[in-house]
Amino acid sequence: MHPDKFVHASKHEKEISDEHSRRLNESYKTLSEPFLRAKYLLKILGESETKEKDLDPSSLMEMMEWNERVSEMSSKEELTAEKTTVQNEIDGVMKELGKQFAEKSLDGVRTNITRLSYLYSLRTLIDNRLESMMGV
């Protein structure tokens, strides 16, 4: 399957090898990243893709306010502390997600996958702000 093993193969065999290699890498990424794995498991269970509506209005407002607070932070120390807070929240949601999958509480799974999506975006925002402060 590895493309290096098909150096002397026909064009068609190389294309097949490349496609299998791409799918294998994509599968590995999906299974190794908890957020992507949770979304995939939900899909396997026949559930639809998560949407914004999976968060109740108060949780959605909380995420928007949190995002705004991060946008207003001006020091590296504030952002670093907030990143730790966000990561702790992600870790807590991941634990809850594991319980919900075990209990087959798919509504809760969808809600927490949506929440994770917002938290990962928030963490990325913090990382980007920290990078810009460091001149990277």
From TrEMBL:
<feature type="domain" description="Co-chaperone HscB C-terminal oligomerisation">
    <location>
        <begin position="56"/>
        <end position="124"/>
    </location>
</feature>
<dbReference type="InterPro" id="IPR036386">
    <property type="entry name" value="HscB_C_sf"/>
</dbReference>
<dbReference type="InterPro" id="IPR004640">
    <property type="entry name" value="HscB"/>
</dbReference>
<dbReference type="GO" id="GO:0005739">
    <property type="term" value="C:mitochondrion"/>
</dbReference>
<dbReference type="InterPro" id="IPR036869">
    <property type="entry name" value="J_dom_sf"/>
</dbReference>
<dbReference type="GO" id="GO:0051087">
    <property type="term" value="F:protein-folding chaperone binding"/>
</dbReference>
<dbReference type="Pfam" id="PF07743">
    <property type="entry name" value="HSCB_C"/>
</dbReference>
<dbReference type="GO" id="GO:0001671">
    <property type="term" value="F:ATPase activator activity"/>
</dbReference>
<protein>
    <submittedName>
        <fullName>Fe-S protein assembly co-chaperone HscB</fullName>
    </submittedName>
</protein>
<dbReference type="GO" id="GO:0051259">
    <property type="term" value="P:protein complex oligomerization"/>
</dbReference>
<keyword id="KW-0143">Chaperone</keyword>
<dbReference type="InterPro" id="IPR009073">
    <property type="entry name" value="HscB_oligo_C"/>
</dbReference>
<comment type="similarity">
    <text>Belongs to the HscB family.</text>
</comment>
<feature type="region of interest" description="Disordered">
    <location>
        <begin position="1"/>
        <end position="22"/>
    </location>
</feature>
<dbReference type="GO" id="GO:0044571">
    <property type="term" value="P:[2Fe-2S] cluster assembly"/>
</dbReference>
